[in-house]
């Protein structure tokens, strides 16, 4: 990070709200139950339109493709139909599988040779996990560079059916997630009694944070997934956050909240319930406010300072930004990010 440029610090007119490209990573698309077998739907995410479809039958695979047919450019999401696991263009019935390979040109005696060699329709790698559809986005269409982690709370029947929430925020995903290492704001914006003592470890595509000596453990996994575990004397509640860029300046925030199925009526069940309420900012008589009530006013209106003036009590903001640059391939040296 460069030395503070005082002129830049004082000239806010040149600052942008969101100078960031769409980052590379795994991103939430929708809940699996919302995509029926054989369905074709146009969706907007990652700053463009995509066609989301699912193969026929119970085991139908989900696919997410660029809308425009490689043949003559018809929009696959307007009139396109699912045949088996493939999407079939309405114009001349070429078929493409979820990996983008052309599987059928019904009237060609010889398929264009390229069809045998490589996918010709841009599709994103898609996996379904935790009852959700996830896509891998990379601006240069490179293959996934890491795997989604295991989240036992979303994989086992020992945990309650998650409560989910969805919010739209007018800023980029990098700005939203910067909150996770901005420890000072927890006191001044959220009303925590003290700035929590915290440690942060940046490791490849992940960040591990520990706040208040184990009370909150955070695991950021790329730009599109973060898991926070709140531990109150051994009772743990979990918040899984999966934000997805909508446009470059708008983010859809999605969250699931869950905890172990403590027997009903026990103290543990009450504590866990309270922790979940606390996370969403709904707990009564709380000393601190959840993100829903206070963070939006900042996110929706701020500008991004690439060269901020920081002080010794701030969290590892610059390390975080350096870490985040790995998700902007080709922009690692861009001074505006
Ligand atoms: S434009 Fe899609 S099959 Fe011709
Ligand atoms: Fe916050």
Description:
The chain is α+β, with helices and mostly antiparallel strands and 337 residues long. It has 2 domains: 25-137, Rieske Iron-sulfur Protein (3-layer Sandwich); 152-327, Naphthalene 1,2-dioxygenase Alpha Subunit, Chain A, domain 1. 16% of the residues lie in helices and 29% in strands. The chain contains 8 helices and 18 strands. The protein has helices spanning 6-10, 114-117, 152-155, 173-178, 184-188, 267-280, 291-299, 317-324; strands spanning 25-31, 40-45, 48-54, 62-65, 81-83, 86-88, 95-96, 102-104, 126-129, 132-137, 163-169, 198-203, 206-211, 216-221, 226-232, 235-241, 244-247, 250-259. The strands form 4 sheets. Strands 11, 12, 13, 14, 15, 16, 17 and 18 form an 8-stranded antiparallel β-sheet that branches. A 4-stranded antiparallel β-sheet has the order 5-6-7-8, with no helix packed on it. The protein is globular. Fe (ii) ion binds next to α7.
What's the quick description here?
Its main location: membrane. With 337 residues, the chain is α+β, with helices and mostly antiparallel strands. The protein has helices spanning 6-10, 114-117, 152-155, 173-178, 184-188, 267-280, 291-299, 317-324; strands at 25-31, 40-45, 48-54, 62-65, 81-83, 86-88, 95-96, 102-104, 126-129, 132-137, 163-169, 198-203, 206-211, 216-221, 226-232, 235-241, 244-247, 250-259.
